[in-house]
Amino acid sequence: MNGYNVDSYSRYRFWLESGYFDEETKKELEAIGDNREEIEDRFYKDLEFGTAGLRGLIGAGTNRMNIYTVRKASQGLAAYILRQGQSACKRGIVIAYDSRHMSSEFAVEAARVFAGNGIKAYLFDELRPVPELSFAVRHLNAAGGVMITASHNPKEYNGYKVYGDDGCQISPEEAGKVLEEIEKLEDITKIKPADINEAVGSGMIQIIGKEIDDAYIERLKTLSINPHLAAMVGETFKIVYTPLHGTGNKPVRRILAETGFKNVLTVREQELPDPDFSTVKTPNPEDKSAFSLAIDLARKENVDLIIGTDPDCDRVGIVVKNHDGDFTALTGNQTGCLLLEYILSQKKARGSLPSNGFVVKTIVTTELARKIAESFGVEIIDVLTGFKFIGEKIKLLDEQGNKKFLFGYEESYGYLAGTFSRDKDGVVTSMLIAEMAAYYSLKNMTLYDALEELFKKYGYAKESVSSFTLEGKAGLQKIHETMAKLREDKPSCFGSSRVHAIRDYLEGKRYVIGSDYAEDLTLPRSNVLYYEMKDDAWFCIRPSGTEPKIKVYFGVLGNSWTSAREKLNGLERDVLGVVKGLLG
């Protein structure tokens, strides 16, 4: 095969020659020519269906996001639903999508596959945010949901996220069962999607919209703790908001208006959907450069608070004015801690803080959250990275147990209050951030002032995350080798930074360095290594489940801002030196 991988090349030829594939797909493949690396990368495997579903580059090939990979995933999910019986088929699947390239096309394709299998599909009439999809699954008592999105990834990506009937992203166990059904599909050409017009006409595909919007917004309003604050600050209180060309534009502006915030200035250049995200390098609220236009508007209008949501509106970032008049982007950990302190303190002040309340955070989220929760006598629970694990705790402890969920968040700018959505919610979070900022403004404080008070009260926490992307098959292999090496060696130090204990979530064990002691971990198995360091510090290494990327998270606690920064810099230097050496 002239140096080609036989399987990759045969798949490539099949896509070129079969009458099942459309002409546009074939033209894209023909344009590759004799580029062996490109053919190999597009066809050496099927786009992996992981615990979050699919995510990948848009394009032709088995290792790309396109209507055919969407059909295959949908057929596997349909088979999984069919196994649950006729009742599940009638309850149906809810489908929503964001503003990315091909999102609406992928959503329609999924709906057609479900309808073709006799499963009812509820299809939103236009783009909607992730949290509304989660809400709609529960509101309609559906058997599951699909969200077409790649969150805050670059414009070249799209994805397919699967939700269970509880509104959570499906668990690893459920994802494994769906994957089993997908892997049974030996011939993709046997998938026969229903005709869209016929399916809509027969009711197998039902278009939904405003009725779900209204129900969702009304439920969000019940989560306001101090609904009178917006009226108290009046029209002098201004907020700049940017949806970063995504799904947040309508619901975020609506919830702010309907809770009394009358002076919300929207960044007009980023207001409307744009799959190219043409005003930003990347549509990620974790990146301060995405707020450049918002900061310009805030300076012009003398605004202290900027709120921004990512394309599928499940993540929120905020930028605030500091004492020097410069705009500072708060980290996800900082925003989460501010919200946690506000929610718990205000519920306590109003006498509505339950004795059986609990907060959930991921293992890579700041330990400062633990200090805050414990100061109010509230239980805090750690889960693995992934908001589905936070949603799972809501189901087990709040819905089925005897505890009350108060708040959940992860360091990557995802937050949730309330239990009727089970994924991170940028809409309700925007409402609570605005309310919190109004509360502090009545005390002549900005959110920057509030953060300083938080650090003085609980300690100076500082965190960071570094990521390394290694493209292609070789990159994935190198990431696997790095994790295996660290797992095997169990290093007692990284440079001058000494390790106290290692939590290996793949083995399900916690090892104390320098002893034979090992204890079982209670969290699900996952390819994650967590290092407890000496002197109130930690770091964690985990590969991404959806991208050829490995991430290293760091956290320290100091008695001053300077000491925390110095401690973090030293830990990063020691650990990254080792990791870079392993990655080559």
Task: Give the helices and strands, then pairings.
Blueprint: H1 6-17, H2 23-30, H3 36-43, E1 54-57, H4 67-82, H5 86-91, E2 93-97, H6 103-116, E3 121-124, H7 130-139, E4 144-148, E5 157-163, H8 172-183, H9 196-202, E6 205-208, H10 210-221, H11 229-233, E7 239-242, H12 249-258, E8 264-266, H13 292-301, E9 305-309, E10 316-321, E11 327-329, H14 332-349, E12 357-362, H15 368-375, E13 379-383, H16 387-399, E14 404-410, E15 414-416, H17 426-441, H18 447-458, E16 460-469, H19 472-489, E17 493-494, E18 497-504, E19 509-512, E20 518-520, E21 529-533, E22 537-543, E23 549-558, H20 561-583
Parallel strand pairs: 2-3, 2-4, 3-6, 7-8, 7-9, 12-13, 12-14
Antiparallel strand pairs: 1-5, 4-5, 9-10, 10-11, 14-15, 16-23, 17-18, 18-19, 18-21, 19-20, 21-22, 22-23
